[in-house]
Design goal:
The protein is 42% helix and 8% strand. The chain is of the alpha/beta class. It has three domains: 27-175, 3-Layer(aba) Sandwich (Rossmann fold); 176-199 and 209-220 and 273-343, no CATH class; 222-272, no CATH class.
């Protein structure tokens, strides 16, 4: 059962009647990098910015992350028609570039300096910054493309209606495509009601006498996290060199933690917990080998050898591979963003 609200209440509704501006100032195009969570935040910011500028939002472009290597588009992950419909009274949204702006692509902006590209937006820029620096571009050219855009809109000192709109995007407008929602629901059902001895799965309408409990663990001990931390994970000199090389490829060596010794990193709490450490932490919190554990992760750094201790402590540990059928897994195979969406 959900926890009691304890005085908290949803704040997505506007105090007044939201309505579209009589005339759009032009088209806003954003290119979002990072993983799925960062992109989701960027989508919320893009809608808020379109409202601030009285602009029409082109469905955001999701960049291919150098770590996750997933080329999934917005409509592969999110229900685009639902997104547009929920926000229809707040901003104008179009699925594709109008014909007159067919040239405004990622490749076009990568080739040279373009007057319609905004690449200098500060992190957590104010609404006034966009009104002073982006609105003139919209008024002159009819379109403005912002890249990078991650974390480029402030949270502080924003009008309350803009904050409410962000919440509306996050909690109402952004829903996953049907097959992702269906798979997620199926995995939860299988965790709560494991198949019986004859492998007959219990349906939603059956066995209403309470639901089985389980713990979801987002391990986040992937190779990029291990490398970015610059910590020592016991793999010796070879591992240190391999992770240093990976840091150079992905971040060109620009990692703050690299300046600290391993002892300093550990003492300052800068190192991610290993699967073994997570297992000991859960055990110390009172979870035992009867606990059903769902492992929500992409690829654990070190593979099965790295999580063997965790599995021995929690033998009822499950993941997408153990819970989903081969047909279900085929729909999300090799798609890091879709895998994250299921989790």
């Amino acid at each position: 059962m959900p926890l009691a609200p304890q005085g908290w209440k949803p704040c997505v509704r506007s105090d007044g009647m939201s309505k579209l501006p009589e005339k759009s100032q032009g088209y806003i195009q954003v290119f979002l990098d990072g993983g799925l969570n960062q992109q989701r935040m960027g989508i919320c910011d893009a809608v808020a910015l379109a409202k601030i500028l009285n602009a029409t939002l082109i469905i955001p472009h999701l960049e291919v992350n150098p770590v996750w290597q997933d080329s999934s588009a917005f409509m592969d992950i999110f229900d685009v028609d639902h997104f547009i419909n929920v926000l229809k009274d707040d901003i104008s949204i179009v699925k594709e570039l109008p014909d007159e702006y067919f040239w405004s692509t990622r490749e076009y902006y990568a080739a040279a300096i373009r007057a319609t590209r905004v690449k200098t937006a500060p992190v957590h820029a104010s609404a006034n910054w966009y009104l002073e620096n982006v609105l003139p571009i919209l008024q002159s050219y009819g379109i403005a493309a912002i890249a990078p855009f991650s974390h480029r809109l402030a949270f502080d000192n924003m009008p309350e209606d803009i904050q409410r709109l962000r919440c509306k995007v996050n909690f109402q407008a952004l829903v996953f495509v049907p097959h992702i929602r269906a798979l997620g629901d199926a995995l939860v059902r299988r965790l709560r009601h494991p198949p019986s001895a004859n492998n007959v799965e219990i349906s939603d309408s059956e066995d209403k006498k309470g639901t089985g409990k389980f713990v979801v663990l987002h391990l986040r001990f992937d190779k990029d996290m291990a490398a970015h931390s610059a910590c020592d994970f016991g793999g010796g000199k070879a591992e240190k060199l391999a992770l240093a090389k990976y840091r150079q490829v992905i971040w060109q060596g620009r990692v703050l933690n690299s300046q600290f010794t391993d002892e300093e990193l550990r003492s300052q709490g800068r190192c991610p917990l290993t699967p073994e450490e997570i297992g000991l932490l859960l055990a110390a919190l009172g979870f035992d080998n009867s606990t059903r554990l769902y492992l929500a992760s992409h690829k654990v750094y070190g593979g099965e050898a790295r999580i063997s201790t965790l599995r021995s402590l929690f033998p009822l540990m499950e993941d997408k591979k153990s819970l989903a059928s081969s047909e279900e897994r085929a729909q999300i195979k090799g798609k890091a963003s879709l895998l994250a969406a299921v989790d």
